[in-house]
Design brief:
The complex is a heterodimer. By secondary structure, chain A is an alpha/beta fold. Chain A has 3 domains: 30-43 and 321-512, Roll (Luciferase, domain 3), CATH 2.30.38; 54-225 and 272-314, Rossmann fold (3-Layer(aba) Sandwich), CATH 3.40.50; 515-699, 2-Layer Sandwich (GMP Synthetase, Chain A, domain 3), CATH 3.30.300.30. Chain A has 22 helices and 28 strands. Chain B is α/β, with parallel strands linked by helices. Chain B has 10 helices and 10 strands. In chain B, the strands form 2 sheets. A 6-stranded mixed sheet of chain B has the order 6-7-8-3-9-10, with helices on both faces. The longest helix of chain B has 19 residues, at 138-156. The chains are: A alpha/beta, B alpha/beta.
Chain lengths: 700, 272
């Protein structure tokens, strides 16, 4: 079988020159800062949005392009459009309703649900009233919401449906301040008699009545808003400890959005599908923020299951997704190609080879391409790439971003070779995402690009990346200590990421600084780097590497059921479910082979040769955010996993061949149970490089 | 969400159990020497969820088929919406607002979900086959109305993503949901569900329970269902009728039935 990402050149990621990772502590003194990025201390001057707030932008669009589409939503199978002037009227009604209920300036409004226009408008309504929208992850279980609701002292919530209302009602005893719950979809809620509940229609009806008796109220409230007011509070996913509420001002968000607009020429003619969690800074800035800054149209999919279909129907011109979304698309393409007839399959593979050879150079506008290759690529575009992009809904893409995690080189190249301008960016909630971004036409694999205009990036002496820009957060909500501790004397934000600038001034991110550890023999251990290499295989969904303070490196693997299920089917390998498939000896052999390849790659780097993975286990269950093993943005919570599966970790570092484990598991309905399993421990092939011999001996 | 909340009559929203909509009196049904049902009487009230339970072979599906008009009982009368008769006829029953799903899914496997749901509207289509073939004027307008209704059901059952998928390619749990959708497409006042949760996993069962409750609440549909999962039955039904060997041995609120000695004996067996 040929799967694109396994094509030999899989793991040619740029080797990194890691700088002195001895200190695990965070650099707080300016004198630790050694490297300063080249000439990127430019600030975007006098951007038109400087005195702007989001509500004023709404007024501006309603006046300037009142009839243009502001939002589309697929309803009963048909895309329905809302114009800017309609949005303004709707926002005014919501704001009136909230005001009538006693919403005051500075109040927080919790917004929970999938990407629905009414939820986006509610955020705007809160901002118009000088309040602070607090979007929450819609798939969080009730208990995870308690902290945020208490921390932000939320009194008002506008949520999507019964599911969210049920969660909030169950939290009423703990969140005493929660007094008004508004729901969008009344389904299943008609019998609820709680006095706090109210439907969206009733809220807006109240609002219209309120606005009729208080003419000018809405406009006055908008006029009261200042750019330095807090525009939104986004809670960090909390890989470590409690989540922190990151407060951003209107000025910072609008400034950052303007930088992006200038960087990639985003305009009101762009189309965007919003399907990322509303609580993620990526959605807030790249969907909500961009739409208000440029006046472009946001498209809300029918449901989370129809995103792919909606993508095809809308054909967005601008797209932002974490790598796993790109990976899902690729996996689906590969599965379908294998089901296609032999002629199509051969055509696909032939032209993908052509694309791999020349596609990226074509995209980058290079001149030195042989005529024959150009012709072949043109034919490929006609026969393969074009139709495929069309089916995937990517044919109108001008620019696509990948962020949140490192993206696999083969995955990245697949899209770029087809002519999709996919770029990696780097940032975090605290910096309004945008710190570094690859420039169109100048994309270097394995890097996240040079710093954005207006953003100063430095690498401290201990290898930590430091950032200073106008897009910085104002503070962590109610945590002055934490807010101070992440900024150094010069006003640089300490990202906690370890990285370095390559010779061209592109930033390379290696790992979380505090996760970088050492093996017992003192050699470097960068778990995330190893895990990413593993995850670049389509069969591996998640990986957790262990090794800090140990004499060897081991890994815990989560297989990708979609990709491996298909693989198994082709081999007539029957399986009943995830756990069964994960335990198959054939699957173990396949994963061992993948790990073997990673080891080959690691062995090539003298610094990392000792980090080769000796033993591994395929977990019997998928790591899940509901069980606290991943964050809501699907990042691995290393410590929690190490604690929870301590038995497995011990077994990995011993010589036993299997281990028994009992793990608590939460089902999607909120109930929990215990899953018992007997896991086999796999042994991977170690590359005998000079540096690795000691490890190899240990493994043997 | 929202804009697509179903345009229903406001008076359907309150769901109060009303007067008797269907009454069975002394129904007996035999297949040759096999007495499937003997002397069964019970009634179904408007807007209620009534569960029929009983061990295997107790006559549950036969009873549903009697209500549905597929089987004709040798004895007894059926009163549906005030009209009394000895036997029903499936076509007439359907046009009077009774829809059903089957124990073994009975969908058109090669057709898309959308088309399957459209067949549920068949009884309501007025234009003839010739007009439909031309798809013009009245036919087109009519189809748009039906399609809009079907789209509402698709949203209601959260099957947007499989709208155009052939039913045969769907997993079992989803096929069950599509079948419920087809029954709903007929806008029934009474819905007969034959083991809607059979063969489903816990999550699918929960989803299905929610759909059954929502149908009852949103549309005010009276629901008669056969189910083996006691947890489900006790949770969602207003009333439970228990059959054993073709006889009715219990009838009442879930809690009463749970404590009924005859029912306990039928399920757990008795020492002789």
């Amino acid at each position: 079988m040929r799967v694109f990402p396994l094509s030999g050149r899989v793991l040619e990621m740029k080797k990194y020159a890691f700088k002195l990772p001895e200190a695990k502590h965070v650099a707080k003194r300016a004198d630790l800062i050694s490297t300063i990025s080249e000439g990127n201390a430019v600030t975007v001057s006098a951007a038109p949005g400087n005195a702007m707030t989001f509500p004023r932008l709404l007024e501006k669009h309603a006046a300037a392009r009142g009839d243009r589409p502001a939002m589309r939503e697929k309803d009963l199978g048909i895309w329905q459009t809302t114009s800017w002037s309609q949005v303004r009227a709707e926002v005014e009604a919501i704001a009136g309703g909230l005001a009538a209920l006693g919403f005051k300036r500075g109040d927080c409004l919790a917004v929970i649900g999938d990407n629905r226009p009414r939820l986006y408008w509610s955020m705007m309504a809160a901002q118009c009233l000088g309040g602070i929208p607090v979007p929450l992850y819609q798939d969080a279980v009730a208990q995870e919401m308690v902290y945020v609701l208490q921390d932000a002292d939320v009194r008002f919530a506008i949520v999507e449906d019964q599911e969210q209302i049920d969660k909030l009602l169950s939290l009423m005893p703990e969140c005493a301040s929660l007094s008004h719950l508004v729901y969008d979809d009344p389904r299943g809620l008609r019998k609820y008699a709680q006095p706090q509940l109210m439907g969206y229609e009733r809220l807006t009806a109240m609002g219209r009545a309120f606005n009729a008796t208080h003419p000018g109220f809405f406009g006055d409230q908008i006029a009261l808003g200042k750019p330095d007011d807090i525009a939104v509070m986004l809670y960090t996913s909390g890989t470590t400890g409690k989540p922190k509420g990151v407060s951003h001002t209107h000025a910072a968000l609008i400034q950052t959005a303007n930088v992006l607009v200038a960087f990639d020429g985003i305009s009101e003619n762009d189309d965007l599908l919003c399907y990322l969690p509303m609580a993620w800074v990526g959605d807030f800035l790249y969907s909500y923020g961009q739409s208000y800054v440029t006046g472009l149209c946001l498209n809300c999919p029918e449901s989370t299951d129809t995103v792919m279909e909606c993508l095809r129907e809308i054909g967005p011109t601008y797209y932002f997704a974490p790598p796993r979304v790109y990976e899902n698309i690729l996996t689906q393409v590969m599965i379908r190609i294998q089901d296609a007839n032999p002629l199509k399959r051969r055509m696909f593979h032939y032209f993908m080879d052509v694309a791999r050879r020349v596609g990226i150079r074509v995209l980058d506008g290079k001149q030195d391409i042989a005529l024959m290759d150009r012709v072949l690529y043109g034919i490929g575009e006609l026969l393969v790439y074009g139709p495929m992009k069309n089916v995937l809904g990517l044919s109108r893409i001008r620019v696509a971003y990948s962020g949140g995690e490192a993206i696999g080189p083969d995955l990245f190249n697949f899209y770029r070779s087809m002519g999709i301008n996919l770029k990696q960016l780097y940032g975090m909630t605290e910096t309004c995402v945008t710190v570094c971004m690859q420039k169109s036409g100048d994309v270097k694999l394995g890097t996240v690009g040079p710093p954005m205009p207006g953003v100063e990036v430095r690498v401290a002496g201990n290898g930590e990346v430091l950032v200073r820009s106008k897009g910085m957060m104002k503070e962590y909500h109610r945590q002055p200590e934490a807010s101070k501790s992440v900024v150094n004397a010069e006003g640089f934000f300490l990202t906690g990421d370890a990285g370095f600038f390559d010779t061209d001034g592109h930033l390379v991110i290696i790992d979380r600084a505090k996760d970088v550890g050492r093996l017992a023999d003192g050699s470097l251990f960068a778990p995330k780097y190893i895990e990413n290499k593993l995850k670049f295989f389509p069969y591996i969904k998640e990986a957790v590497a262990f090794g800090d303070g140990r004499d060897q490196v081991t890994a815990m693997i989560n297989i990708d059921v979609a990709a491996l299920g298909d693989w198994a089917e082709r081999r007539n390998l029957g399986y009943s479910g995830y756990a069964d498939l994960a335990a198959k000896p054939e699957v173990y052999a396949l994963i061992a082979e993948c790990i073997g390849r990673v080891n080959v790659d690691l062995a090539a780097d003298p610094k990392l040769a000792t980090s080769q993975i000796t033993r591994f286990v395929i977990l019997h269950k998928e790591l899940d955010a509901d069980d606290g093993e991943l964050t809501r943005t699907r990042k691995v919570r290393r410590n929690i996993i190490a604690e929870k599966y301590a038995v497995i970790v011990e077994a990995l570092f011993s010589t036993v061949e299997h281990c028994e484990i009992e793990a608590a598991m939460k089902f999607e309905d909120g109930r929990s149970g215990v899953v018992r399993a007997d896991l086999k421990i796999g042994v991977a092939k170690i590359q005998a490089s000079d540096q690795a011999t000691s490890v190899a001996r240990k493994a043997a | 969400m929202s804009a697509n909340a179903m345009p229903l009559d406001a008076n359907l929203h309150r769901r109060e159990i009303g007067s008797v909509i269907l009454a069975l009196e002394n129904i007996s049904l035999a297949f040759g020497g096999v007495q499937a049902l003997s002397d069964i009487s019970f009634d179904v009230r408007e807007h209620e969820i009534l569960a029929i339970i009983g061990p295997n072979g107790a006559g549950k599906s036969s009873l549903l088929n009697v209500i549905n008009g597929v089987y004709h009982p040798q004895q007894g009368t059926i009163t549906f919406k005030g009209e009394k008769r000895h036997q029903m006829n499936p076509h007439k029953v359907a046009s009077q607002g009774v829809a059903r799903t089957f124990q073994n899914i009975a969908l058109f496997k090669g057709m898309s979900v959308l088309d399957n749901l459209m067949t549920g509207r068949n009884l309501m289509m007025k234009t003839g086959i010739l007009q439909q073939a031309l798809y013009w004027g009245a036919t087109q307008r009519e189809e748009l109305v039906h399609r809009a209704r079907v789209e509402e059901i698709i949203t209601f059952l959260e099957i947007e993503s499989i709208r155009k998928t052939p039913v045969g390619r769907l997993p079992y749990g989803l096929q069950k949901r599509v079948e419920l959708g087809r029954a709903l497409a007929a806008e029934p006042t009474m819905l007969l569900l034959d083991e809607p949760m059979a063969g489903m996993n816990v999550e699918e069962k929960q989803d299905m329970c929610r759909f059954v409750l929502d149908v009852n609440e949103e549309f005010g549909t009276t629901i008669v269902l056969i189910e083996h999962d006691m947890g489900v039955v006790m949770d969602i039904s207003d009333r439970v009728v228990v059959l054993d060997y073709g006889k009715k041995i219990g009838d009442g609120a879930p809690d009463d039935v749970r404590n009924n000695q005859a029912v306990i004996d039928a399920y757990l067996g008795v020492k002789h």
